[in-house]
Amino acid sequence: VLNGRGAQAPRHWRAAVLSLALYSAVAAGAGAPALIPVPRDARLTGSAFALTAATPILVPERDASARRSAEYLAGLLTHLGLPALALRTERAGEPRPAPAIVFRRRPGTGLEDYAVAVDGGEALLLAHGDAGLLHAAVTLFQLAVTDGSGGASIPGIRIEDAPRYPWRGLMLDSARHYQSPEFIESLIDWMALHKLNVLHWHLTDDQGWRLEIHAYPRLTEVGAWRVEAGDAPAHDLDPETGEPRRYGGYYDHPTVRRIVRYARERHVEIVPEIDLPGHASAALAAYPELGVPPVTVAAVPNSWGVYPHVFNIDEATFRFLEQVLDEVTELFPGRYVHVGGDEVQLEEWQASARVATRLKALHLKSVADIHGYFMRRLERALVRRGRRLIGWDEILTPGLSRSATVMSWRGSAGAIEAATRGNDTVLSPDPGLYLDHRQSDAPWEGPGRVTVLSLADVYGFDPAPPALGAQASRHVLGLQANAWTEHMRTEARVAHMMFPRAAALAEVGWSAPEPRDFRDFLARLAGLWPKYAALGLPAADSVFAPRIEGRYLEGGRTVEVTLANQGRYGQLRYTVDGSEPAAASPLASEPLLLALPVRVRAATFQDRDRLSKSYARDFSAALAGRRASAELKLCGNAIALTLEDDAPIAGPRAQFTLDLMHPCWIYPQASLAGITRISAAVGQIPFNFEIGAERAKLRFPPPVTAAGELQILLDSCEGELWLRLPLAPAAVSDATTVLEAEAPARGGTHDLCLRFAQPSLEPFWALDWVDLERPAP
Ligand code: ACM
Fold it and tell me: What are the tens digits of pLDDT across the range 552-578?
């Protein structure tokens, strides 16, 4: 699929920018085609094509790949309620049925280039390459507008299209959390829908080794399983063993072959990652002889962050790695193998006498040279197998071979250095393309890194920073967004964090850089939204979802409610009678003055189509003083996360927004007049973060009771201690507990600082919500 420089847009496409602008102006209007990524050149021509149950799809003779794309298109269209259209072979000289959808080869160079030409008589899908034919097919699917009675119409249009970059990737971390093969196949379909063409599959890490290796069965027998962190998982015993239930899973060879074939048929190349020589804990738990004595890894660990464990540099270890690469390259036929190279800690090598002896034998000056040595050995091993090495930007050491590809994650500096040296590079910088960042700051956004990476942020990503220069930018293969799954426990969360941001990524990677208009993109996304639903793609609605905010008015009888959404897009409609908002519900264009108590439900629409789930929020005198942790200010932003509780094992879990390094919260401008009681929901979570020496910097105020207290201080965290809520009642529960206390009378308006006085780091206490209660008038 990665057809290198050949896939870059030929020069004459630059001239198409004008017509793109014209197209975009049309696309922003109602009923215009909702294409993502936007094509280089598209012109609406007038007469539409009517798609019916009787429309055949014609494919060229003896063209198995075209036939597969035709079948793929027919399958996609069934999701819109059309029956499976019949496939026919088009033979030269035979009369052909009209109207028809026609797949046809045409001469060309770029394997991904394609054209679409639709009028009343036919819908023609043209390409030179196999990938181009599939791109044309998904384009036709995106163009189809259903008529509600089993048919669809395709607008008259002429499209000529080609990608800006040959690498448009998503990285899925299957090590931190495991996803089913069925989910990964769905993901490949969602990628193909957006012309994304590289799935970087992160298969090994400290917390799990997920790829079966026949030569080393313990990698998955041992390395694929861990006991999750926290008291709740420790108490969740497996009846068969009497031991805590293990979390995990792995992909065996038949499953990998099936997924690879599935991806190839959708022209998605899978780049497997075996992360070396760090992020090694799971492998070392399985085969201790691969590690650096006397360090041992007793079991696959369950903390997030960076472990110090590394592979040793014995010859036997390289023999092990060669055998692993034999199986990896046998399973994955693509050009690239990713060997990690990120976040390698030197301390175990530094402390080892055996490593010191090996260094001498290998003529290496210091442990700092081991990383480069490791990568050179891996690169030679891959070249012998006809493959190319790709690694994270730490592989940029002086001896790095020119044929290695560098994936820039610590910003874009790695890409600039690599490209300047003449190495190919892929941009996947943190934070710009790191999908573990939440995409909104709404209280319901869910777990992830707190600093927001919105859909607009991804859409605004610039893969051609000026610092790169024209010469070096020729080495930029493209870009990739990474889904690290520490905080994506379920497949639904992975889908939520990936889409629709992956749609924005697809457009940045595929479409011409100019013009780029986020509102126009949103209009096309809104047009595509019903198709996401039809395909079962559970994309996050964060950009469209109504935020329901209330301001309680003096007197305690009314609330002023405003509705807005992140994208400032669509029609926000609401109800207050308990019914689901519908396309006919009133618009919330002005602030609403509502009598208490009231439940406001809202959803965002584009005409009849719903663009968001429906969201509800209760307002009452009793709730006026209540704030969730996500609605409070954090005392810091060092490692700010929204984390899930570890309990209950099944069912919904509380979510805590906090800065791990400064676990305290500010309730700004609290009016304390008349407040008589305080309640607060707190939870204890495992401190399962490998943060090295930083751990010692975490300090807590001294508690006055054995289990500690939640403290509330006035005006600042150095201010007067107003109240203590003892944690003893919460210490016995794995889930959240509501603490309550009388509040000493206090008037005025104050910032409140909430923090925990606790005897030790664990259990690590977190605030779910706090409520300042006033007796009912
Ligand atoms: C990385 O995020 N450690 C590549």
Answer: 998 889 999 999 999 999 999 999 999
- Phi/psi for 460 (5° steps) reads -85, 5
303 three-state secondary structure: coil
Pocket residues for ligand 1 (CB within 6 Å)?
A: 342-343, 392, 409
Retrieve residue 775's tokens. 């007796």
- Can you tell me the distance from the alpha carbon of 117 to that of 119, in angstroms, rounded to the nearest whole number? 7
In tens, the pLDDT along 394-451 reads: 999 999 999 999 999 999 999 999 999 999 999 999 999 999 999 999 999 999 999 9
The amino acid at 262:
Y
Number of Cβ atoms within 10 Å of the Cβ of 691: 18
- 393 catalytic? Reply is no
Of 343, 618, 631, 690, which one is the catalytic site residue? 343
Q: Is residue 681 classed exposed, middle or buried when 0-12, 13-18 and 19+ CB atoms within 10 A define those classes? A: buried
- Average pLDDT (207-226) is 98
Distance CA 108, CA 617 (A): 56
CA distances from 451 to 67, 485, 637 (A): 46, 16, 8
Separation of CA 438 and ligand 1 centre (Å): 17
741 SS3 class: strand
- Give percent of the chain above pLDDT 70: 96
Name which residue sits closest to atom 3 of ligand 1, judged by CA. Answer: 342
**pTM for the full model?**
0.95
pLDDT at 6: 29
Secondary element (H or E) of residue 687: none
392 Cα to the center of ligand 1, angstroms: 7
Instruction: Say which residue the tokens 């919105």 belong to.
Output: 454
Q: How far apart are CA 370 and CA 359, in angstroms?
A: 8
* CA pseudo-torsion sign 73, 77, 79, 85: negative
Residue 11, pLDDT above cutoff 50: no
36-89 pLDDT, tens per residue? 999 999 999 989 999 999 999 999 999 999 999 999 999 999 999 999 999 999
- Among residues 177, 202, 279, 475, the one annotated as catalytic is 279
Region 614-628: mean pLDDT is 95
Res 12 pLDDT > 70: no
Question: What average pLDDT does this structure show over 141-168?
Answer: 95
Please write down the HEC assignment for all residues of 220-276.
Answer: HHCCCEECCCCHHHHHCECCCCCCECCEECCECHHHHHHHHHHHHHCCCEEEEEEEE
Q: How far apart are CA 281 and CA 206, in angstroms?
A: 4
Q: Could you tell me if 228 and 646 are in contact, meaning their C-beta atoms sit under 8 angstroms apart?
A: yes
Question: For residue 115, what are the β-bridge partners?
Answer: 126, 160
| Closest-CA residue to 420 (of 391, 400, 445, 446) | 400
Q: Rounded CA gap, 647 and 734, in Å?
A: 6
Three state DSSP letters for 498-518 = HCCHHHHHHHHHHCCCCCCCH
Whether the predicted pLDDT of 218 surpasses 70: yes
Q: Is the pLDDT of residue 191 over 90?
A: yes
Q: Ligand 1, closest atom to CA 392? A: 4
Beta-carbon contacts of 619 under 8 Å, excluding residues fewer than 6 positions away, are 550, 552, 559, 561, 594, 596, 597, 598, 599, 600
Distances in whole angstroms, Cα of residue 326 to Cα of each of 141, 202, 331, 382, 397: 40, 18, 9, 9, 25
Q: Which of 41, 122, 130, 205 is catalytic?
A: 205
Smallest Cα–Cα separation from 477: which of 59, 165, 64?
A: 165
What is the overall mean pLDDT for the chain? 94
Indicate the Cα dihedral angle 536, 542, 546, 551, nearest 10°: 150
